[in-house]
Amino acid sequence: QLQLVESGGGLVQPGGSLRLSCVVSGFTSDYYAIGWFRQAPGKDREGVSCISSSGRSTKSADSVQGRFTISRDNAKNTVYLQMNNLKAEDTAIYHCAAGRTTVYDMCVMRRGVDSWGQGTQVTVSS
Prior knowledge:
The chain has about 130 residues and is mainly β. Helices cover about 5% and strands about 45% of the residues. It has one helix and eleven strands. It has one helix at about 105; strands at about 5, 10, 20-25, 35-40, 45-50, 60, 70-75, 80-85, 90-100, 115, 120-125. The strands form two sheets. Strands 2, 4, 5, 6, 9, 10 and 11 form a seven-stranded mixed sheet that branches. A four-stranded antiparallel sheet has the order 1-3-8-7, with no helix packed on it. It is globular. The chain starts with a strand and ends with a strand.
């Protein structure tokens, strides 16, 4: 069974940076697209950034374009989300997810996810 474990969340001031990591185990992770999702209190879950199994294709929400970068190192079974110029509205629990699907289906249509991580809290506040 595929397992995903996130780390790297925390408290940061507006304008600051964080890098989230998602370590995948239990199966060969390079067969799976991996996505980062977030959910703030009272809001729907949002697809933040997704990356294809090869790493050649990515998809990100308009709200994070130019600020967040997703990448993966299949040798380490790890996917990263570099978050720069953080804003208060980025505050949420961030989950990574895996699925044998396209980045569009995963991030935009929010379907095709097989497994979820437990999440890591990101709080942006002065």
